[in-house]
Design a protein that fits this description.
This protein is α/β, with parallel strands linked by helices. The protein has a single domain, classed as Alpha-Beta Barrel (TIM Barrel), CATH 3.20.20.70. The strands form two sheets. The chain has an eight-stranded parallel sheet with strand order 7-6-5-4-3-2-1-8. The protein has a two-stranded antiparallel sheet with strand order 9-10.
Length: 213
């Protein structure tokens, strides 16, 4: 069985980026959504990206940016993955997927079985779907968990990862219950909105991969 992939999202300091890398994160998320407390300006995102080693994938999180701003962000940061978290269409994702070397992810708010069924719309447009809680005050990072039982027996049309309310205390159970190959946390490793804690980052990675502890 493949080792669980771990994404620590919404990092904004060199210290927390380094802690995530050292703890074994496979993906680090940089958030360009200005209303979020995890927002990093483009120049800072580019600087943080440069300190991340090649074996860790950089995920650039975008929310409903127009085409010129999207191109500017991708050129400035040069991520490995672009994660769309807004009102983007399958057609727009397919355009990015087919014309760049990037992995293309789409975050999907899962409210019920019907919203899970809508994931079929993204087949061929996204390389991975990230199942998150339905949007609250922000598109993501609200600390809300989805009903994991919805995923039981579902035939996923696209490779997927699990987000929404994951923290060091529940991530191992989430992996056992859903079979998620990738888990994503943001607010679950914070002491306040946007304030990541290096000890919580370590604890999350350890809990997600107890075999490595």
């Amino acid at each position: 069985m493949a080792e669980t992939e771990i994404k620590i999202c919404g990092l904004s300091t060199a210290e927390t980026v380094d802690a995530a890398v050292a703890a074994g994160a496979t993906h680090i998320g940089l958030n360009l959504y200005e209303p979020s407390p995890r927002y990093v300006p483009l120049d800072k995102a580019a600087a943080l990206r440069r300190r991340i080693p090649a074996h860790v994938k950089v995920v650039l999180v975008l929310v409903s940016l127009d085409a010129p701003a999207t191109v500017q962000a991708l050129e400035a940061v040069r991520p490995d993955v672009v994660q769309f978290h807004g009102q983007e269409t399958p057609e727009w994702l397919a355009l990015i997927k087919n014309n760049t070397p990037l992995e293309v992810w789409k975050a999907i708010g899962i409210r019920n079985a019907e919203s899970l069924a809508s994931t079929h719309n993204w087949k061929g447009a996204a390389d991975k779907l990230l199942y998150d809680a339905a949007a609250g005050a922000l598109p993501g990072g609200n600390g809300l968990a989805i009903d994991w039982s919805l995923l039981s027996g579902f035939a996923h049309p696209v490779p997927w990862g699990l987000a929404g309310g994951l923290n060091p205390d529940n991530v191992a159970d989430a992996i056992r219950t859903t079979g998620a190959a990738l888990v994503d946390t943001s607010s679950g490793v914070e002491t306040a909105p946007g304030v990541k804690d290096v000890d919580l980052i370590r604890a999350f990675c350890k809990a997600a991969r107890p075999e490595n502890a």
